[in-house]
Amino acid sequence: MRKTIFYWEKIYDKAQMGAKMMEEILVVKDLHVSYSDGRAGFWGREKGMEVLKGISFSIEEGEVFGLVGESGCGKTTLSKALLGLLKKYEGTICHRAEHPQMVFQDPYSSLNPAKKVGWILEEPLRLNTKLSKAQRREKVLAILSRVGLEEKMAERYPKQLSGGQRQRVCIAQSLMLEPKLLIADEPVSALDVTIQAQIIDLLRTIQKEMGLAILFISHDMRVVYQMSQRVMIMKEGRIVESGDVDRVYFHPEHPYTKMLLEAADIREEGD
After folding, report:
1. What would the DSSP string read from start to end of 138-200?
2. pLDDT tens-digit readout, 31-60
3. 240: part of which helix (H) or strand (E)?
4. Cα separation, 89 vs 254, whole angstroms
5. On the CB side of 162, how many CA atoms lie within 13 Å of its CA?
6. Mind giving me the DSSP string for 195-238?
7. Beta carbons of 89 and 31 less than 8 angstroms apart
8. Minimal CA–CA distance to 75: which of 237, 191, 223?
9. What is the largest CA-CA distance in the chain?
């Protein structure tokens, strides 16, 4: 039986865990997730489909760690597990980051259409801090500026914004509690190509300025290469290859990695 642990606090003791562990903001070991199909199996246990099959990896402070895989491979399930949205799983997920945040794929559905942008951004502060109304307002305007939006955007509803502006608001929302870890799940796939480049540049700038660690999830090999220092390749719920992004991209070992690179017209060195 695997031990299941979920830490939301800074749990590592340097003397016990070693200096290297102090640099890791997220550690995942042998993570398994299954979804029940409601049928009874042998000895009366519920049958289920295993979605994640022994996932292990770690992310260091300030690192952008890429995750690539086709639709249905388990990327979104992994994100839910990391955010504490799944109650049943086997394995170990250790956080050293308070309030890890998510940047969602679709900026159209991830913002409350009935509320103005200022209210949306202020809500995490109302729920999680003791800041005064004036202090919350000041922070909202500062974050808007950081993501390249004017103060007047605080008075607009999401429907009044373009797709790129909405995604900037989503990024701003994820930054309100000053997290050390972001999970960016296909954050540019719903945007036009020209807007994608702007959002990638924004994420890269914010990551450097704030020292964020980012788990950058995408099916786009080129975008992941632009963003990441290390990368892992997922297929059918398993990690089939991982390592330094240059090594994986230009000296791939697994046939599936080679197939993805070929489909993206990225050639191995020497080809």
Report:
1. HHHHHHHHHTT--GGGGGS-GGGS-HHHHHHHHHHHHHTT--SEEEEESTTTTS-HHHHHHHH
2. 999 987 655 555 445 557 889 999 999 999
3. strand 238-244
4. 27
5. 9
6. HHHHHHHHHHHHHHHHT-EEEEEES-HHHHHHH-SEEEEEETTE
7. yes
8. 237
9. 62
Stated pTM of the model: 0.86
5: helix, strand or coil = strand
pLDDT per position as a tens digit, 63-119: 999 999 888 889 989 999 999 888 889 999 998 878 899 998 888 888 999 999 999
CA atoms of 191 and 246, how far apart (whole Å)? 27
| Nearest alpha-carbon partner for 232 in 203, 253, 262 | 253
Smallest CA-to-CA distance from 165 within 111, 208, 122 is with 111
Token reading at 224: 């992941």
Which DSSP string do the residues of 61-130 spell out, in sequence order?
TT-EEEEE--TTSSHHHHHHHHTT--S--EEEEEE--SS-EEE-S-TTTSS-TTS-HHHHHHHHHHHH--
Tell me the β-bridge partners of 50. 34
